[in-house]
Design brief:
The complex is a heterodimer of chains A (about 290) and B (about 90). Chain A is mainly alpha-helical and about 290 residues long. Chain A is built from eight helices and two strands. In chain A, helix 1 packs across helix 8, helix 2 crosses helix 4 and helix 5 packs across helix 6. The longest helix of chain B is centred in the middle third of the chain and has 38 residues. The mean pLDDT of chain B is about 80. Classes of the chains: A mainly alpha (about 290), B mainly alpha (about 90).
């Protein structure tokens, strides 16, 4: 089983590299640069800059799969003996309930905010996971039998800052809206200020306000940079073949596979969990400020 | 010959780019150093805690991964800062 997984992982890593090789052998004489993967070209031009590009396609696909996952795993007929589908659904539900929602949210707010944090967790997990499955969604094309087909590539929508910033912005706005609604505007903003001697206040207040904005940055950049660095590492190791010599092929595929497995097994789930858990903690701490 | 190799080696190529590359690598390297110590601390403490009170394992696991991700992210702040400086300056 483990060997099969490793083999599948190696194939997954090797496939995009083959696709890359086929494009670099062509007429394009450009230098290999992993950063090209993040230059998004518009596929469908729409007004107001709402173009559809690679990242948008991945987000749409991720949304569809998240909805499907919810329907398939959660809308199960309750039976005497639980099916595998129900077991998986309950496992996900329990992680969202016990590990995410109850960690951060106060009991009275769980009913309202559990759907949000659970959706965040599943949605980010799906998008992250899609980022490590080679899909024919890319800006480069390869000609097979006279038809231009997009090459297989690995790309996560969460490795672009816009996507993660939008998610973080949602949490950030919900935090303040919910804080004001639960405590009143005066009570909520007063709760930002810790109890310190009066002389310290001019120093503390700007720091606390800055801290609120830092949350936004840290929440978005954490997810973005994790996924970016993961893809960059894999791409760089595969790219060594084209940059140096074909003889490094075993080494670079081995290293690429190692990082691929590390990302898929650990980073993808951890980042989804951490984003949802921190959202819950932020919203929870706004509803019931500690004093 | 030897002295020219050490002291008077002519610089070729873009020196500014080389400097930026060194700075980027140094920044990420030092960032990883701190995060490495931090992650080691977290898992070390986790092992100690579970060794003393194995019944708390389930509760501690969540906190452990939260701490792990928060610490690990510090490297990436360095990486993004370095990349920004590399591209913008």
């Amino acid at each position: 089983m483990t060997r099969l997984l490793t083999l599948a992982g190696a194939l997954f890593v090797a496939l995009p590299s083959l696709a890359l090789a086929s494009t670099t052998e062509g007429a394009t004489d450009e230098e290999f640069d992993p950063a090209h993967e993040w230059e998004l070209q518009s596929w469908v031009d729409l007004p107001l800059g709402l173009d559809i590009n690679k990242a948008v396609a991945y987000v749409i696909l991720g949304t569809a799969i998240t909805c499907l996952l919810g329907i398939v795993l959660m809308r199960v007929k309750f039976g005497r003996d639980p099916t595998k589908r129900q077991a998986v659904g309950e496992m996900i539900y329990e992680v969202a309930q016990v590990q995410v929602a109850e960690q951060g949210l106060p009991t009275k707010a769980i009913g309202r905010w559990f759907p949000y944090v659970a959706t965040l967790m599943i949605f980010i997990w799906v998008i992250n996971m899609l980022g490590f499955i080679p899909l024919p969604l890319s800006d480069e094309t390869v000609e097979i039998g006279g038809v231009d087909l997009p090459t297989l590539g690995i790309f996560a929508a969460t490795s672009t800052l816009s996507v993660t910033l939008a998610l973080a912005l949602m949490t950030w706005i919900f935090t303040h809206v919910e804080g004001i609604r639960a405590n009143g505007a005066g009570g909520y903003f007063k709760s930002w200020i810790p109890e310190v001697p009066k002389a310290m206040l001019p120093l503390i207040i700007p720091l606390e306000i800055l801290g609120q904005f830092m949350r936004l940055i840290s929440l978005s950049v954490r997810l973005y940079a994790n996924m970016l660095a993961g893809h960059m590492l894999i791409l760089t190791f595969i790219g060594l073949i084209f940059l140096t010599h074909w003889a490094v092929f075993p080494f670079s595929v081995l290293m690429g596979t190692t990082f691929y497995l590390f990302e898929v097994v650990i980073v993808v789930s951890i980042q989804a969990y951490i984003f949802a858990a921190l959202s819950a903690i932020y919203i929870g701490s706004a509803i019931e400020p500690e004093h | 010959m030897l002295s020219s190799f050490f002291f008077l080696a002519e610089t070729t190529g873009d020196v500014a780019d080389a400097g930026k590359a060194i700075a980027l690598a140094l920044g990420i390297g030092l960032g990883s150093l701190g995060a490495g110590i931090g992650i080691g601390n977290i898992f070390g403490s986790m092992i100690q805690a579970v060794a003393r009170q194995p019944e708390l394992r389930a509760e501690l696991t969540g906190i452990q991964w939260l701490g792990f991700a928060l610490t690990e992210a510090v490297v990436f702040y360095g990486l993004i800062g370095g990349l920004l400086a590399f591209v913008l300056i």
